[in-house]
Amino acid sequence: MNELHISGELTMKPLEFIDNVVDSMESLLAMYAQGRHGGTWVGLKLDEIGLSGEQREQVLALIRVVVGEATHSLICGIEGTSSCSGLMSPDTSIGG
Q: Residues near 51 by Cβ (< 8 Å), separated by ≥ 6?
């Protein structure tokens, strides 16, 4: 399949769709990183819990992994490929 169709209408090519999803994800993560100034509930909560700079970066890195895995699973579901649950970033490990 080279193009996505909805109700018989050409909407966009798959690579364009994936690029748009990635851009949206990056935008959302950037807003979270801005804290209360990013206009998101998550950013506000990150400010409120009073993390150190290093802790904040660790939490934002975890959010990036979670959003990335969820996005990957969504795209797999749209493509109709096998389940993509249970993914872990190669640079993460359980317990440390």
A: 59
47-89 pLDDT tens trace: 999 999 999 999 999 999 998 888 888 888 877 775 555 554 4
Cross-strand partners of 10: 5
Distances (CA, A) of 22 to 26, 30, 31, 32, 75: 6, 12, 14, 15, 11
Domain count, the chain: 1
Report field, pTM of the whole predicted structure over 0.70? no
| Token pair listed for 15 | 């690579």
Residue 36 in domain: yes
